[in-house]
Amino acid sequence: MENNIKLSEVVGSGKDGRILKEDILNF
What region holds the Peripheral subunit-binding (PSBD) domain (predicted)? Predict the structure, then answer.
């Protein structure tokens, strides 16, 4: 799975701001 999304730009909705797969797919 390759995404050119900067993880720092995605707000993690997981525990302690962890980024979940759902966060990336819904970005």
Answer: 1-27
**DSSP state letter for 10:** S
DSSP letters along 1-27, please? ------GGGSPP-SGGGPPPHHHHHT-
Domain ranges, residue 11? 1-27
1-27 per-position pLDDT tens digit? 566 666 656 665 555 666 667 767 766
pTM of the model: 0.23
- The C-alpha atoms of residue 19 and residue 13 are separated, in whole angstroms, by 6
